[in-house]
Amino acid sequence: MSTSQETVTFARDNLAEAYTIGGNPEKTATFYSSWSKGDNYDQHLNPNLYRGPEIAAQAVADFFPSSKRGDAHILDVAAGTGFVAENLKKHGFMRFDALDASEGMLQKARQKGLYDNYICCYLDTNKLPILEDTYDCAVTSGGMGEGHIPYNSLDQLVRVVKPGGLVCIVMREEFVNHSQYKDLLEPYMTRLEKEGHWQKVSRTVVEKYVLEHNGVVYKFKVLPGQNKTE
Ligand SMILES: C[S@@+](CC[C@H](N)C(=O)[O-])C[C@H]1O[C@@H](n2cnc3c(N)ncnc32)[C@H](O)[C@@H]1O
């Protein structure tokens, strides 16, 4: 199915606005809640233009053998209206919780009945309201960018994922060396590895993650708990 030029323009303009808001959790949440109205977000970021959720689901599926997928407990971080869970379901995953800063986005996800729990929360350096070692996987697509998930909150994902579990981050490649992550995100990921919190499984660049922009897919395996950060 083709996408109209008008939809492409809406997608481009809204993404530009979403990712330039600049480090303010309330503004980010308010912006997305307004974008989610009607079916605007879902229509603008349809799979023709935004492949991130499909890419994230494939990356998670590649990590879990099909026999384990039905039981795998997954935290969809910056879940939005539920695109990642929709794609994970196609691979046989069934148990999802959604975490997102925007109540409006979560409300849309609720209408689809995709998740067991909806956690309205801005992921930052504060402790998430989730017990440690709760999930087999934490995954995000589109959650990283200016005004979105801070680089130094990733240890919170390590904390809530069980040893042996997966943290999978899918984001725009150009953001890695840009905006709030420049010279910070990948060094922080390396630091978590050096300190024994997680082990890098892969870092893969993918074409056309969103519109004409490449994406990068990070996969980290969480290591046993005595090294978890608090
Ligand atoms: C581009 S959307 C991606 C949503 C969904 N993952 C998808 O692929 O459609 C980004 C989402 O991240 C959420 N978000 C941004 N920063 C966040 C943070 N620090 N903690 C939790 N959610 C955040 C926004 O509310 C928004 O729903």
TrEMBL record:
Record-annotated membrane-spanning stretches: none
Domain Methyltransferase: 74-165
Annotated InterPro entries: Methyltransf_25, SAM-dependent_MTases_sf
SUPFAM superfamilies: S-adenosyl-L-methionine-dependent methyltransferases (SSF53335)
Stated name of the protein: Methyltransferase-like protein 27
Organism listed in the record: Aplysia californica (California sea hare)
Lineage: Eukaryota, Metazoa, Spiralia, Lophotrochozoa, Mollusca
Name of the coding gene: LOC101845447
